[in-house]
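About this split. The held-out portion is used to measure sequence recovery: a designer receives only the C-alpha cells and must propose an amino acid at every position. Recovery is the fraction of positions where the proposal matches the reference. Here is one held-out target exactly as it appears in the evaluation file.
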C-alpha cells in the first residue's frame, strides 16, 4: 500500500513538472521565429524577447502580448491569431522556445524594425528618444527613410520626420514599436 502511494506521488510530481516545463515565466526571455511572411518582417520579428515582470512581451506591429503563464504552443497559437486578425499576415507560422539565452531579464525594451541595421529589441531607459532608439539599432540602412518613421504605441500609430531636430527628441515609452520604412521615389 505504501509503495503504491509513493509511486503515485512520484508520478503526480513528474506530471506537474512536465506541464510546468514548457510554461513561460516572467523575468525570463523567449526566442520567437516566424515564417510565411516577407523577408524584412521575418528579420524584424525573429528575435529573443524579454518577458517583463508583468508577464508581457512587446511584439512588432501588434504591441504588448501576455506571455507569462502560457505554454510555448499556446503563445505560438495566440501570436499567429493576433497577426492574422490584425491583418498583417494571412498565414504566419510562429515557433516559441522558452528560457532562451539571457534567461534573466532586468529591463524592458522598445522594438525597432524595418530598415535598420540590427532590428529587434532595444533596452528601454526613461531618457530614450526616437533618434536614440534608431541609433541603438545600428541606424537606418541606405534604404531606410528617416522622413516617415512610425511609432506604434498601444495600437495607435504616428509618423515623424526624424531628419528634423524637433522630432529626434521624441521621448519613447516602454513597449513602443518603431518602424523605419523603405525609401520611395517620392519620399526619400
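Reference sequence for scoring:
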Amino acid at each position: 500500500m505504501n509503495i503504491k502511494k509513493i509511486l503515485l506521488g512520484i508520478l503526480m510530481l513528474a506530471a506537474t513538472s512536465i506541464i510546468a516545463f514548457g510554461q513561460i515565466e516572467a523575468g525570463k526571455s523567449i526566442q520567437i521565429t516566424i515564417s510565411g511572411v516577407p523577408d524584412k518582417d521575418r528579420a524584424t520579428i525573429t528575435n529573443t524577447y524579454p518577458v517583463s515582470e508583468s508577464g508581457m512581451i512587446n511584439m512588432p506591429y501588434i504591441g504588448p502580448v501576455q506571455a507569462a503563464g502560457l505554454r510555448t504552443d499556446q503563445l505560438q497559437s495566440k501570436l499567429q491569431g493576433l497577426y492574422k486578425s490584425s491583418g498583417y499576415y494571412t498565414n504566419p507560422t510562429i515557433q516559441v522556445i522558452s528560457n532562451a539565452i539571457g534567461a534573466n531579464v532586468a529591463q524592458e525594451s522598445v522594438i525597432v524594425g524595418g530598415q535598420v541595421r540590427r532590428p529587434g529589441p532595444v533596452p528601454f531607459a526613461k531618457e530614450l528618444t526616437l533618434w536614440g532608439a534608431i541609433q541603438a539599432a545600428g541606424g537606418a540602412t541606405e534604404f531606410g527613410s528617416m522622413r516617415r518613421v512610425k511609432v506604434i504605441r498601444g495600437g495607435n500609430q504616428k509618423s515623424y520626420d526624424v531628419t528634423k531636430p524637433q522630432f529626434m527628441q521624441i521621448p519613447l515609452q516602454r513597449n513602443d514599436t518603431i518602424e523605419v520604412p523603405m525609401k520611395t521615389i517620392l519620399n526619400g
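Annotator remark: Confidence is low (pLDDT under 50) at residues 13-21, 101-106.
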